[in-house]
TrEMBL record:
This is Protease HtpX homolog. It comes from Candidatus Magasanikbacteria bacterium RIFOXYB1_FULL_40_15. Keywords: Cell membrane, Hydrolase, Membrane, Metal-binding, Metalloprotease, Protease, Transmembrane, Transmembrane helix, Zinc. It is found in: Cell membrane. The gene is htpX. It comes from the Bacteria. Binds 1 zinc ion per subunit. InterPro entries: HtpX_protease, Pept_M48_protease_HtpX, Peptidase_M48. One of its GO terms (cellular component) is plasma membrane.
Length: 291
């Protein structure tokens, strides 16, 4: 379990390093092409940060509202509430707000910018249809997302994706209005310009793939951290089996919130693993049982 956590931490750092390298490459090319210093890069960074700050402080409320999650107190559902409470004591975490989604679907998610401002949401279906150890595994997985600051990390990643998208948009707008160096240049410079333009065209796609890859690595890490918390990987493995076999779709979920859930709530097959918000369930179950 420790080796799995360490492996996913390393891979996350590597992916973020690639992200930063992509932005640095775009900045160098724009400096060369526009003769404008790093003004475009700085402007895109400021705009992305301002947009993301709003998302950072309000995204949890939006996610809970959009999925129809209702906050409960201990007396509303003592079984689920006490299970969250007990696991928080074990993990050394402050108690998050507990929410229930009235749905037969088997799913759960955690949200919030840090452990002091966190919420966990469980569907009525997952509470009713999972065994005690299985539900513990699911809750431990979600608490691990909170403890590992995954929401904060993904906010940083969204900022980086936004920077790349804004830089690309600004570049083509300036190019449209005749910005940039003169087109009368040597063949060598022309090749650099061509490579740079292709790079900027492909960067938003690459950024989205890296973002999804980081999201998948954090799912593996939450699986391992959750198993470490309960000391019973089989509980979460069995829960994932039941969740994946359930035909019920969470109707209040959408593509904007799908990545938050323990399993893709839309129950749709992705065209490519590269664009999947979650790792394959079979692979997650295998890794858990190898622990």
């Amino acid at each position: 379990m420790y080796s799995e956590i360490d492996s996913n931490k390393r891979k996350t750092y590597l992916l973020i390093s690639i992200f930063i390298a992509v932005i640095a490459g775009i900045g160098w090319f724009l400096d060369y092409y526009m003769d404008a210093g790093y003004g475009i890069l700085v402007l895109a960074l400021i705009l992305s940060v301002l947009m993301s700050l709003t998302s950072f402080y309000q995204s949890d409320k939006i996610a809970l509202w959009s999925t129809g999650a209702k906050e409960i107190k201990k007396e509303d559902n003592p079984y689920a509430y006490r299970m969250v409470e007990n696991l928080c004591i074990t993990a050394g975490l402050p108690m998050p707000k507990v929410h229930i989604i009235n749905s037969k679907a088997l799913n759960a998610f955690a949200t919030g910018r840090d452990p002091e401002h966190a919420s966990i949401a469980l569907t009525t279906g997952i509470i009713e249809r999972l065994e005690n150890e299985e539900l513990e595994g699911v809750i431990a997985h979600e608490l691990s997302h909170i403890k590992n600051y995954d929401i904060r990390l993904m906010t940083v990643v969204v900022v980086l994706v936004g920077v790349i998208a804004l830089i690309g948009d600004l570049f083509f707008r300036m190019r449209l209005h005749g910005g940039g160096r003169s087109d009368n240049r040597s063949g060598g410079n022309g090749i650099i310009i061509l490579i740079g333009i292709i790079f900027i065209l492909l960067s938003p796609i690459v950024a989205e793939i890296i973002k999804l890859a980081i999201s998948r690595k954090r799912e593996y890490m939450a699986d391992a951290s959750g198993a470490l918390l309960t000391r019973y990987p089989e509980g979460l493995a069995r829960a994932l089996e039941k969740i994946s076999q359930s035909p019920d779709e969470l109707k209040t979920a959408n593509s904007a919130t799908a990545h938050l859930f323990i399993s893709n709530p839309l129950k749709k097959k992705n065209f490519s693993k590269l664009f999947s918000t979650h790792p394959p369930v079979e692979d997650r179950i295998l890794k858990l049982r190898e622990m």
